[in-house]
From TrEMBL, chains A, B:
Gene3D superfamilies: Chorismate lyase-like, Winged helix-like DNA-binding domain superfamily/Winged helix DNA-binding domain. This is GntR family transcriptional regulator. GO terms for biological process: negative regulation of DNA-templated transcription. Signal peptide: none annotated. The keyword Magnesium does not apply. InterPro entries: Bact_HTH_transcr_reg, Chorismate_lyase_/UTRA_dom_sf, Tscrpt_reg_HTH_GntR, UTRA, WH-like_DNA-bd_sf, WH_DNA-bd_sf. Residues 3-71 form the HTH gntR-type domain. SUPFAM superfamilies: Chorismate lyase-like, Winged helix' DNA-binding domain. It comes from Lactiplantibacillus paraplantarum. SMART domains: HTH_GNTR, UTRA. The keyword Metal-binding does not apply.
Length: 239, 239
DNA sequence: GAGTGGTCTAGACCACGGT
DNA sequence: CCGTGGTCTAGACCACTCC
């Protein structure tokens, strides 16, 4: 995978940028110069630059060139992307926090009208309904409320839910193609108050995820309720 | 702009997808068929598909084809992207809420060590420091705390801050290239409690934005503190 | 093995920025 | 005007999926 032309160019350029090699002019060399240096095609060079741009390191201006973005320790921190598809791991996975999981509820049910309206699952299909608390550094930090389409996921058990559902999916050949996410701040419910270490806070962050397999079918609806002051979400917006 | 080949193909395919024209097979026609139909190059067709994928409508699988993602009213809602570069407008701009602005504070200052550490501005440079409350539907919903590099932005006044700073920038030729964002949930400060309609809630959402001009220079650091239960942020993650 | 998307090459012309 | 990135074409070969 890493031996693709554009990826090699990307990695070399990235290293040079972070080492400050282009910081005098605040510009990347022009495309023709990079094509000559790497003895490759324009396609590969442009794809490498596009990857750098997606990461927030550079910005292309038509008619002028490829500009480097200023980067400080603070703005660098913003580059730790939220691109992890896994469940809790997406929350500041880079810290590699140790955590335990407590399964609060585990059962199967049929989707009714009310559940259908917010999960987007069809009425009548069977789902696994799971509630788990994630204990991070000894703190009850996250309440995960999952609904998995039972027809599109391998068989689940409470024991699997205590370990890693996503690893279980991976082992059984379920491929996650796309996740749509929504973030909001909400007043804590009684369930949140009971399960999470909110201290004096009476609100939670709610990360709603809808996941699709590689056949385009939704197999998951999840709400992750998390305590304040602990988790960050990063995003990059390009013009 | 809209007459580019790939953009035309994109719009046509998008319309067909939303009209359900491909929903039987849950697939897009293969690339060669689209090349033939639109009498264009593979480049244009692939670029159109890439745009659909970025939007969360399709997903390409090597060796199989381009799969349509299931879309329901709920998952469609997730497509309203957070791609607006403007300040408050990025918060659910599609609703076109009427709002008023109250300028709470407006002054110039020099960046000291403490301010430098969280804004990423260099110590010693002059900045505009502005605090504004956004009153949405009569509710004090957002507290914007802005710092603008005075050397890289056109002259600002309190009157401009009451209207639109971004329109003022645009008129004066400042181009916003990239915005890096961070989202978190925090315990409300005394300032938040004083300025926002928090009711019984004691937390806020905090959207931190660092904006760069098209020369790659940071010109803005902003914190937008917003009340719970009112704003949503969407995101799409692809594998 | 046939079908399909991913990568790559070698060109061409256009649109925009700066001089 | 020149230099630059953006779009586009016409091909080629590779990697993966499915039968």
């Amino acid at each position: 995978m890493g031996s693709q032309t554009f990826n090699e160019i990307y990695h070399i350029l990235r290293e040079r940028i972070l080492a400050g090699k282009y910081s005098v002019k605040m510009r990347l060399p022009i495309e023709d110069a990079l094509i000559a240096e790497f003895d490759s095609s324009r396609y590969a060079v442009r794809k490498a630059i596009a990857k750098l741009a997606k990461e927030g390191l550079v910005y292309s201006v038509k008619g002028r060139g490829v500009v480097l973005l200023e980067h400080s320790p603070q703005t660098q921190q913003f580059n730790l992307a939220l691109n992890n598809l896994n469940g809790l791991q997406s929350l500041n996975a880079e810290r590699h926090l140790d955590y335990q999981t407590e399964v609060v509820a585990f059962h199967q049910q049929i989707v009714d009208q009310a559940l259908s309206e917010h999960t987007a699952f069809e009425v009548g299909i069977p789902v696994y309904a799971i509630q788990r608390v994630r204990i991070v550094d000894g703190i009850r930090a996250v309440l995960d409320i999952n609904y998995f389409n039972a027809q599109r996921t391998p068989t689940l058990t409470a024991a699997i839910a205590k370990r890693s559902i996503y690893q279980h999916f991976k082992k059984n050949g379920l491929k996650i193609a796309v996740v749509k996410r929504m973030l909001r701040v909400e007043t804590a419910t009684e369930l949140d108050q009971a399960q999470l270490a909110l201290d004096d806070n009476n609100c939670i962050g709610n990360m709603i995820s809808i996941a699709f397999n590689d056949e385009g079918r939704q197999f998951e609806y999840t709400e992750s309720h998390f305590i304040p002051n602990k988790f960050n979400f990063n995003e990059l917006i390009r013009n």
